[in-house]
Amino acid sequence: MKSTILSIKNLHKRYGKIHAVNDVSLDIQKGNVYGILGPNGSGKSTTLGIVLNVVNKTSGEYHWFDGTLETHQALKKVGAIIERPNFYPYMTAKENLELVCKIKGINYSKIEEKLEVVGLSDRKNSKFKTFSLGMKQRLAIASALLNDPEILILDEPTNGLDPQGIHQIRDIIKLIASQGTTILLASHLLDEVEKVCSHVLVLRYGEILYNGTVDDMIAHEGHFELQAEDMERL
Ligand code: ADP
Ligand code: MG
């Protein structure tokens, strides 16, 4: 039987006159690597904010894990990075993760394993303030993985990184996905979604332009109403 991690139905968000999310529906099955693709302002972050319970929806519904858990219980099984990584600058990577474990009541035993996944084992005793943006982002991913979430949500994780940093983050996402973790990745980069994701929801002005497999999107590019200017912005 298929197991649905997240189901969104007819979601709307209005900020005054701005219809930021306009009738978005989406089902993410266990093991999917789902992209939300769209130019800046298309409603990606707002959609993520709603399902993470940090933005209030205007109308519509969403259910985590087939509605089997209360939202706050469900969100304990969700790892999310929706802001710039923010840790204590004068503490080491490992000390920062120990603090996260302490605050969230997670066993410290996972720290070494997660530092390994993000390729930071050899820098675990370095202070956070010495890290590049890419390393900070990787530490944030390790932190979000500490409790072995069912799904990892990332909002534009490669923004601002150099090509090597971008490559590293994409490889880490693929590694985490290959280990069975479901992924939801918001991105404005078409090639990022093509390289990393199995499924994609394409948004423009908060509306769905396409929803399906990445393979079908590539096969049918041009069949859905993507205009040249949108493609460039994607
Ligand atoms: P994306 O993440 O795809 O760049 P957002 O979800 O951040 O898009 O924004 C969607 C639309 O909602 C944009 O027009 C944005 O200006 C607007 N918006 C987002 N957050 C707010 C807010 N707190 N108040 C008013 N408008 C907002
Ligand atoms: Mg955004």
From TrEMBL:
Q: Which UniProt keywords apply?
A: ATP-binding, Nucleotide-binding, Transport
Where in the numbering of this chain does the ABC transporter domain appear?
6-230
- Give the highest taxon in the source lineage: Bacteria
The molecular function GO annotations come to: ATP binding
The family note in this entry says: Belongs to the ABC transporter superfamily.
Task: List the protein's name.
Answer: ABC transporter ATP-binding protein
